[in-house]
Amino acid sequence: MDKLSVMSIRVDRRTDSAPKMQEILTKYGDIIIGRFGIHDPGEVDHGLITLNIRADMERINNIMEELESLDGIQANHMQA
């Protein structure tokens, strides 16, 4: 059984990265259980998205690689 885990995504230059990032998140929507996003009120172009996901490590690595291929995107994963 796949384990529940957390992924954080830091988005710089939101206006440039957001559309492609959203496509990737939609593509992997079947593993995303919950999503919470905030923008940095001090920096208009920066944001943070936290995902609760349930998937095997192969799918997690795939989404992280796709996200990090975009300019201004950093992804981190934590599994308990």
TrEMBL record:
Any one Pfam family match given in the protein's UniProt record, by short name: TM1266-like
Xref: InterPro entries: Acetolactate_synth/TF_NikR_C, ACT-like_dom_sf, FeFe-hyd_TM1266
Name assigned to this protein: Iron-only hydrogenase system regulator
Lineage: Bacteria, Bacillati, Bacillota, Clostridia, Peptostreptococcales
